[in-house]
Amino acid sequence: MLAIFKREFKAYFSTPIGYIVLAAFYFFTGLYFSVMYASGIPQVEMVVSEMLTVTIFIMPIITMRLMSEDRRQKVDQALFTAPVKLISIVLGKFFAALSVFALGFVPTIIFEIIVMSYVSVNVLTFLYSLLGILLLGSTLIAIGMFISSLTESSVVSAILTLVINILVLYMSNFAQMIGVEWIAT
Fold it and tell me: Hey, how many other C-beta atoms are within 10 angstroms of the C-beta on 39?
């Protein structure tokens, strides 16, 4: 599992994908913090909730090549015939994607420490919000890995993952818009 984790983690940063994902995450996190700080309302929880939107759009980029690239290059056949359990392969890929996603939280934590030096902030609320986004990211990684395993094309995998993520996360809003009572509850 560790060898697969290292291979996948290095693959993120041997191509521009890892850098683009982290740059986008850092940019939007900094933007949300600067807007929040400029408004004079230091509610860090609002920034974390805005990170949800960024997560929805970044996750397909993180997961698009996890399984589909190996399938396209026929590396999956070598992996499956190697003396490695299937669960080790899946968990290695999963934790590599989760690690890249978790690296996006570094500036958020730094910004939180900076804001805490100026105003009183509920640290537990912030930490629970980050934990919630991390758990959501884990769920979206699992969905993206599943979709990536169904196709050889990374682009198709990314588009399908984005559509499924939007449907899953906004399912309750869609149900309320429909107006059918048994669906909305």
Answer: 10
Q: Look at 31-35, 42-46, 150-154 and tell me which has the smallest mean pLDDT.
A: 42-46
pLDDT digits (tens, 9 = 90+) for 85-116: 888 888 999 999 999 999 988 888 888 888 77
CA 165, CA 145: separation in Å to the nearest integer? 12
pTM score: 0.85
Q: How many domains does the chain have?
A: 1
Q: DSSP string covering the chain, please? A: -HHHHHHHHHHHHHSHHHHHHHHHHHHHHHHHHHHHHHHT---HHHHHHHHHHHHHHHHHHHHTTTTHHHHHTTHHHHHHHSSS-HHHHHHHHHHHHHHHHHHTTHHHHHHHHHHHTTS---HHHHHHHHHHHHHHHHHHHHHHHHHHHH-S-HHHHHHHHHHHHHHHHTHHHHHHHH--HHHH-
Domain of residue 96, residue span: 2-184
